[in-house]
Amino acid sequence: MALLDILIHPDPRLKKAATPVAEVTPALRTLAADMLETMYDAPGIGLAAPQVGVLQRLIVLDCVKEEGAAPRPIVMVNPEVTWASDELSVYDEGCLSIPEQYGEVERPAEVDVRWHDLDMAEHSERFSGLWATCVQHEIDHIDGKLFIDYLKPLRRQMITRKMVKLKRERMRA
To answer: Could you say which of 23, 37, 138, 169 is catalytic?
Structure first.
């Protein structure tokens, strides 16, 4: 397994919709394992393939935060929200592609998601709380949408300027 480079906003690949996965190949299995390792190392609770430069509909997540609790890594191939609650929740979201920046995003409090695993078996589950926020955030990534797209334009521009500056600093280092 290998740690992958996470793209930093603004990068045009983060704004493109990813293509559906037609079949699970050994390369896709390796990508999923590397994405999980990269997500845990960051540390984060979710990562989408476009964030590592792969425009395919693949996300990984693990929202277990309790000390001593067993991790619950989930790999989702071609995930889609099939139902969303009318009730909304607000969460102060961050993103591995927009480091150290946060913003309050309002999303459905509960969602049903259907996806395939790495054996192409179909799954469906209702998510709530942090899991609901995270899975919607990651599905947004494979649709070419970032959490800052939900923020007011001035806040979004300010964050984008900070990311441009961060990228310049990293290139000099």
So the answer is: 138
